[in-house]
Amino acid sequence: MKDEVTSREERIENLKGMGCSRKRVEDARFTQGKGNYVDDIKLDGMLFGDFVRSPYAHAKIVNIDTSAALEVPGVLAVLTAKDLEPLGLHWMPTLAGDKQMVLADGKVLFQGQEVAFVVAVDRYAAADGIEAVEVEYEELEVLVDPFKAMQSDVVLRPDTVAEDGSPADGAHGPRKHHNHIFTWEAGDKGPTFETIDNAEVVAEETMYYHRTHPCPLETCGCVASMDKVNGKLTLWGTFQAPHAIRTVVSLISGIEEHNIRVISPDIGGGFGNKVGAYPGYVCSVVASIVTGKPVKWIEDRMDNLMTTAFARDYHMTGRISATKEGKITGLHCHVTADHGGFDACADPTKFPAGFMNICTGSYDIPTAFLEVDGVYTNKAPGGVSYRCSFRVTEAVYFIERMIEVLAIELNMDAAELRRINFIKKEQFPYKAALGWEYDSGDYHTAWDKALKAVDYDGLRAEQAQRVEDFKAGKTRSLMGIGLSFFTEIVGAGPVKNCDILGLGMFDSCEIRIHPTGSAIARLGTISQGQGHATTFAQILASEIGLPADSITIEEGDTDTAPYGLGTYGSRSTPVAGAATAMAGRKIRAKAQMIAAYLLEVHDDDVEFDVDRFVVKGAPEKFKTMKEIAFAAYNQAIPGIEPGLEAVSYYDPPNMTYPFGAYVCVMDIDVDTGVPEIRRFYALDDCGTRINPMIIEGQIHGGLTEALAVALGQEIAYDDMGNVKTGTLMDFFLPTAWEVPNYETDYTVTPSPHHPIGAKGVGESPHVGGVPCFSNAIQDAFRPFGNRHTNMPHDHWRIWKTANELGLHD
Amino acid sequence: MGKKQHYKITVNGKEEEFLAEPRELLIYTLRERLNITGPHIGCDTSHCGACTVTIDGKSVKSCTMFVAQADGKDITTIEGIGGPDNLHPLQTAFKEHHGLQCGYCTPGMITRAKKLLEENPNPTEEEIRFGMAGNICRCTGYQNIVKSIRAAAAEMNAAKEAAE
Amino acid sequence: MIPAAFEYHRPKDMAGVLSILQEHGDDARVMAGGHSLIPMMKLRMAEVPHLIDLQDVGGMSDIEIGSDSIRIGAMVTQHDIIDNDALAQAAPILREAALQIADPQVRYMGTVGGNVANGDPGNDMPGLMQCLNATFTVVGSDGEREIPAREFYEAAYMTAREDDEVLTAVTIPMPQGGHAYEKQKRKIGDYATAAAAVQIVKDGATCVSASIAMTNLSDTPVYSEAAGSALVGTSVDDAAIKAAMAAMLDDIDPTEDNRGPVAFKKHVAGVILRRAIERAWSRT
């Protein structure tokens, strides 16, 4: 083969491997309208299914009359719980050890709950059929407050009451009350309480992380197609974890896994909304089996917001103790977690409150105690982790608010208070008081860099002047400086303590090199916009020396992809990325032997250099990876099988811990409650950076979702359990007009245990962004006595804060 | 089910004739009847803009139009804006500047951006954000979308100047 | 989000429209741009067995600027309003308000007629037209009549237009003086948390006329005669503005919703009105 004389730098550049802003291979189809999303799928004879849904939040089902619906032209069937019961499918297991009704079984527990499934020739007939189903309800008392639910005689779930009337045990142990789900504890209660009780300074605060929703632009849906001839079920769907869905569908349907093919095609955003299984999936499968035709279900936006997995809804009370000088000595956190009608969290089995126990945050806190009580209410079931690792948004919000409250208690600058409490670089790997071992970090460097970049002292001086001007009546605008220094815990996770429904949270990569030097790699993850087809090829390019442009990355088809636990909680790079590197190294190891054979030297006499193996000390003697690839198919090498393939199932030894330093400057119109974001600076450390362009895009997107959550995006209920924010009229999604430009920056502190030192980054901006935006608002009012105000900070709530502080007089 | 009527619309330069109920929303006509699946559905209340097409020179949310209203009209979707042999500068710019992630808003985004640049060939950043406020994105935070549109505008203006 | 079935009519002239309205009464409704009606139909909150599409009916798409009045056809879109430079010269408040309605796509389809005829308290044009003392031309089987905007709105979704009448045009006396349309909203595309339309005329240093109308603070738009009077004869100083705000607050009756509680809305209404008055005054 002809070898042009290219420099080593050029060879590296040509690979488009790790570290370069490779343009995305996905963009060709998306910019031309040739994506393949679930609702684009059309099969011969395909039917359409949709739900009759309860208008009531809590009611008995007295009767369901489907006769009129069945008369509607085009309607073929109407399924109710009675039809699913003989199959044992009227209930299904959740990913949190609970069970959930697929169709209302005797009663409904939240507004919008699925009552019947109408199957018709198209969605128009289905809609008409839904109107014609007559359901008789008997309204029951509604519980929307988890604290009241824990005191109430009203039994939400009859299955939580034992025969003798006492609360039955739940999936995670005994219940305190029939509406109680679990108690989960972490840390040391005795020592922590003692430390706090005897501390010089204690700050206590109660805060509510409001219920919100991931709201990806594409709603959830599926197409189920039972091939009766071959006995094989194919299920396309919006699945962030296709293999897990296959296993779950197999377990509940009785169809063996080898006869189930689950395909996640292009997905229009996930953000956690598409991890779990929904009644729509089950009903579509049943309807396909019953009718012998493919059945499609695509939910409306209202269905999505009102009934699919919400996020957050954590009532948190914190106590943080410190010395007079500001050194934190202890932390206590209690959470009342509102799970709605069913605990449909997608958490690893042993963690019913996810990784809430990262709530000591970035600070060196010697002792801590966390307890979480899960509670049922008449709201939609959940909650999932919306653009975060499990419950990490809640944990980080909690600690980043507690540190601000402590700063107020100590009358200290909040940036300085953080600095003196950061875990020091030399303390890593750091064993946190609530159990996790943080892999690496250099918080002080990041913090100093961030504060310098925004001229923090200058901002505080400007703010002080603004307060004076406000008091003198010269301005009606207050200035807020929002700070956030977050440590995330992502990359679930080590099999020994992370499993979902018993499936260990490893992940996988399988690579096959073709004779002419290109390759295909399949992973157990599934992109919903993160650009895996682009970035995982970059990892491989650097590992195996073939150009990224010559590597196809495939995900999402369970018939061909190796088993994995999917993409959520920023786990793809930490786990599947590691598997990719390890599989790449197996390829390289075999390539080394082939190269040695071709060069007629010992295995140890060749070394890898960018895209080739060279003889040590004789660099003019080399074989490129392309030549080696062909040789794998062409040569009969003693002791070496033909072909060039490898697979790696990677069980991570630990989670990874990306971190970041964010600063937000806001100007707030005190009279209208309208905030203006003047500046947002985000420094992220995700370890090794695979594609800076994609990282920047993730930061922009995550910060924008943070802005939305902090400044108004909520799922709100009234006292009767009616959803007040069920459409995009009231569910706040900012447009391009409401969103600022972001400044992004970075440091690099690789993960010591990850094969390429990468930590993952997709969700960091959301986790760190929410407290940053919230702190900016709260900081603006701090000089006037604000200690803590709950989110969301929409106009009227900001106005209310100002009003209650007397700023309108 | 209502009675079906006869309709004729032009989509991406091709005339389509069919029978449909008047209540059929144009987005479904495009996606399900004509297999033009570029425009997407993202909401129920005409907010998100994922369904945006161009009709007789106007940017329109096709989820808020009955096929009956569209009878006789000339419709352009993303598929009519550019393809593998003739990419529109917006399509190349969105790739160059990472103006998309999951791709779901992208057809509507680019279709609207094309019309915006016809309205205003040299928009400021503020004018772009205002002019694109009918299209919601959940992934990008809009910053790179704005960058992509500015880059496309610059390229299109340079090409126009060169041609003159 | 699938609407119920209906019969669709696209008559070529007003006579055709009226005859369908006569024939089907309550079961028939006209549609202009459809961006108020179709979302309601998709949610099955509006049942329209007979839908009359006005798009082929001529004579309603013009903007005619006369010497002392402006006539805007009911089918003129928000986009047309914004795009018309002569109109922006003659009545700049219209462009200013239209730019704050909805988003670009909706503005291409949303019509002036649709915005004023519905009786939706959230719409911006009703209050604006009251501020401008517009009259609406309404056509029925008995012929044409003119209804002043200030007398048109009775309650939410209830107006002086009979079910078998069609609003065909809006006539505005040529506006005088300084203008402002000030609107607070949660985001682009939202209805107003509070909005104020102000036209104000200065002679020397004194206000000689002021017209003030408020939006989405009641079940109808609120033309506040008292608020306008509070400015007349003054130099529109702080005291006068405060008096106008107080008078306006007596005329509105906001309800609590997702935008906020009553106290908030009242406060913001006052702030918005102040800003509108100050800006309009600065433009005199």
UniProtKB/TrEMBL annotation, chain A:
It comes from the Bacteria. Keywords: Copper, Metal-binding, Molybdenum, Oxidoreductase. It catalyses: CO + a quinone + H2O = a quinol + CO2. Its cofactor is Mo-molybdopterin cytosine dinucleotide; Cu(+). Residues 32-141 form the Aldehyde oxidase/xanthine dehydrogenase a/b hammerhead domain. One of its GO terms (molecular function) is copper ion binding. Its EC number is 1.2.5.3. Catalyzes the oxidation of carbon monoxide to carbon dioxide. Dimer of heterotrimers. Each heterotrimer consists of a large, a medium and a small subunit. This is Carbon monoxide dehydrogenase large chain. It comes from Ruegeria pomeroyi.
Automatic annotation (TrEMBL), chain B:
It comes from Ruegeria pomeroyi (strain ATCC 700808 / DSM 15171 / DSS-3) (Silicibacter pomeroyi). Signal peptide: none annotated. It is an enzyme of class 1 (oxidoreductase). One of its GO terms (molecular function) is 2 iron, 2 sulfur cluster binding. SUPFAM superfamilies: 2Fe-2S ferredoxin-like, CO dehydrogenase ISP C-domain like. This is Carbon monoxide dehydrogenase, small subunit. Its EC number is 1.2.99.2. InterPro entries: 2Fe-2S-bd, 2Fe-2S-bd_dom_sf, 2Fe-2S_ferredoxin-like_sf, 2Fe-2S_ferredoxin-type, Beta-grasp_dom_sf, Diverse_Oxidoreductases. It holds the Pfam family Fer2. Residues 7-81 form the 2Fe-2S ferredoxin-type domain. It comes from the Bacteria. Keywords: 2Fe-2S, Iron, Iron-sulfur, Metal-binding, Oxidoreductase.
TrEMBL record, chain C:
It is an enzyme of class 1 (oxidoreductase). It comes from the Bacteria. Keywords: FAD, Flavoprotein, Oxidoreductase. SMART domains: CO_deh_flav_C (SM01092). Its EC number is 1.2.99.2. InterPro entries: CO_DH_flav_C, CO_DH_flav_C_dom_sf, Diverse_Substr_Oxidored, FAD-bd_PCMH, FAD-bd_PCMH-like_sf, FAD-bd_PCMH_sub1, FAD-bd_PCMH_sub2, Mopterin_DH_FAD-bd. This is Carbon monoxide dehydrogenase, medium subunit. It comes from Ruegeria pomeroyi (strain ATCC 700808 / DSM 15171 / DSS-3). The gene is coxM.
